[in-house]
Design a protein that fits this description.
Layout: E1 2-5, H1 9-18, H2 23-39, H3 46-70, H4 72-75, E2 79-83, E3 87-91, E4 96-100, E5 106-110, E6 113-117, E7 123-127, H5 133-146
Antiparallel strand pairs: 1-2, 2-3, 3-4, 5-6, 6-7
Length: 154
């Protein structure tokens, strides 16, 4: 199965936010706020810690947006994805790769995207809108068969 699509910066930002990459950063910020509220004395440690945590959220969001802008060459051209029994082929305006399915640990589905995740947390993001309804159904079944329960799209 082969399809070609072009991501927008908005789609890439949305997919990145929902990919789970920000969860550790936000978790650390939440822990900082909680510890500050529990163990800080009123007004002396709480306010600076909360301000630092809020700045941390802003810094994470800024970093993601900046990274996406630097990746503009990747999304300025169409991507062609080829899915076979052996693996996934991805061609962009600047690169081409063929990756065997054994390189992926799991496939998840969230908010209109498939995330094909490798053990090192790297992921290929595929917008489901790039596939017809019949192709989406076929891919969902394919991923379910290829990846064990708990590690598949759905």
């Amino acid at each position: 199965m082969t399809t070609t699509f072009q991501l927008t910066q908005r789609e890439l930002l949305s997919a990145t936010r929902r990919s789970g990459i920000m969860i550790p950063a936000y978790g650390a910020i939440a822990v900082g706020i909680t510890l500050s509220a529990l163990f800080g004395s009123a007004g002396t440690r709480v306010v600076p810690t909360v301000v630092t945590c809020v700045l941390g959220v802003v810094a994470v969001e800024y970093g993601i947006r900046r990274s996406i802008k630097r990746s503009a060459s990747l999304i300025d051209t169409p991507w062609t994805v080829r899915i076979t029994e052996r693996g996934l082929g991805l061609t962009t305006g600047v690169s081409h790769s063929e990756i065997d399915w054994s390189a992926y640990a799991r496939v998840t589905s969230k908010a209109g995207f498939w995330y094909l995740r490798q053990p090192n947390k790297a992921a290929v993001i595929l917008p489901q809108r790039a596939f017809t309804e019949a192709q989406r159904a076929e891919l969902t079944a394919f991923f379910a068969a290829r990846f064990p329960t708990g590690k598949r799209a759905g």
